[in-house]
Known about the structure:
6-stranded antiparallel barrel, alpha/beta, 378 residues, 9-stranded mixed sheet, QueA-like
Amino acid sequence: MTARVGERPLTRFRATDDLTADAPPEARGLSRDGVRLLVASEQDGAVTVEHGTFQALGRHLGPGDVLVVNNSATVAREIDGRLAARGAVVIHVGAELDDGSWVVELRTAPDAGRPVLDAALGDEIVLAGRHRRTLRSSPTLRLVAPYPEPGSSPSASGNRLWKAVESGSGGLGEHLAAHGRPIAYGYLRARFPLAAYQTVFGTIPGSAEMASAARPFTTELVTSLVSAGVVIVPVTLHTGLSSQESGEAPQPERFAVSRSAAAVVNAAKAVGGRVVAVGTTATRALESATDEAGSVHAAAGWTDLVISPDRPVRVVGGLVTGWHNSDATHLLLVESVAGPNLTQAAYDAALSRHYAWHEFGDSALLLPDREVGELSRR
């Protein structure tokens, strides 16, 4: 299932560069759970917005509510290299596919500030070592097809994502483990260690980029939530590379929902508990295991599910999330959970209070009052 190219969210706003969180909160004098939390809730059509810090999340959840979290841990998937006939590039490496090929994106050196869109079929990239030196054992990647298929990039300037195969004496996975670093983008003021890109729930390595909605959680906060009767349920979704272009659908990603996770969610729904997903990744995983009647089943494999008005959420009734760009397909998912009116109110309030954007930024808790799956494009 794919989103229509060019499909856009209803929510309208303009975020400026000065709202970007250019470093982890710890580097800005805050604790992980000290980032701001905007709580937007809806009752009988009336929207209420509250402002606080993430430490107070438990005030807005009750006994029997379920937080669905992603337990995928972030791995080092950024590496320097040289593209034949072009020069230095930064390579972002996404999923390893079933046929042994890899999903890659080429970006401008040295800070991965922009995508390289003029690479061509058959181009080769020689990977560098930890200090940008080409090693004798460095793998070489060859671009063999646009990913996920020809024409899947909305850009008229060229292709962003590629399917690549490796050659050379060193394996790509081993090379990344030895010389790779966390994927980062040009808006960050410095490089940060892999530990800065992990969440408290991340126990299964596999995500190319951090499942960032869960980053503000701490062990102490989780303990207080559990002690208050909030149930925390882990699912797995190994994130691919971020959707960077307007109208670009999320890529297929590996996911797993266990039988026990499905049972807990179904039981909570049966007694009126609210199922709150922590992030778009947990939402995608859980909804990929949900049938048309709203029952969750054990499931695993690749998901190409795109949550949008064409396929709204069926079980998720609330969302902990960061802030997404106005043309991002992730915002379609947010609107599917929260509805366009609540989403618009939340973004208007966040902009007026200068909430911080991107993976190290501030957070939102969105709690609609309607039945899930009833979103209309009004």
